[in-house]
Amino acid sequence: MDRRTFLRVSGAVPVAGMAGWPPPDDWQRLRRRLSGPLFRPGDPGYPEAKQGFFTMYDDRMPAAVVGAARVEDVQEVIGFAARHRLPVAARSGGHSYPGYSTVDGGIVVDLSRFCGIEVRPDGRAVIGAGARLGPIAATLAARGRVLPAGTCETVGIAGLTLGGGLGLVDRKYGLTCDQLEAARIVTADGRVRTASATAEPDLFWALRGGGGGNFGIVTGFTFRTVPAADVATFALDFPDGTQAALLGAWQEWLPGLPDELWSGMDLAAGRAGVSGTFLGPETRLTELLDDLVRRVGTPPGGRRSRVTDHLSAMRSFDTREATVREAYVGTSRMLTRPVADPAAVAEVLTRDPGVDTLVDSAGGAIARVGARETAFPHRKALASFQFLHGAAPGEGSEAGARRSLAAVRDGLGPEFGTTGYVNYLDPEMPDWAEAYYGVNLPRLRAVARKYDPRGIFAFPQGLSAPHSTVHLGET
Question: Where is the FAD-binding PCMH-type domain (predicted)?
Answer without folding.
Answer: 58-228
